[in-house]
Description:
Blueprint: E1 2-4, E2 11-14, H1 26-38, H2 60-81
Antiparallel strand pairs: 1-2
Amino acid sequence: xxxxxxxxxxxxxxxxxxxxxxxxxxxxxxxxxxxxxxxxxxxxxxxxxxxxxxxxxxxxxxxxxxxxxxxxxxxxxxxxxx
Length: 82
């Protein structure tokens, strides 16, 4: 991915992401690839970063379940404090 300045048309960011994982479905891995590109954005020049990403970023159901569990815990705390 290359990002260019709108004013000068100079390249201001270049990033590359690839997956060595076992999931063979682009809709599932795109979240992990985007995370790798923009985590610690813009970062340092000429640095190679390697990330191991948990399965839940690839699995929307696992992510939603985790978010729902957080929401339920917050609601439970609110009820106890009232």
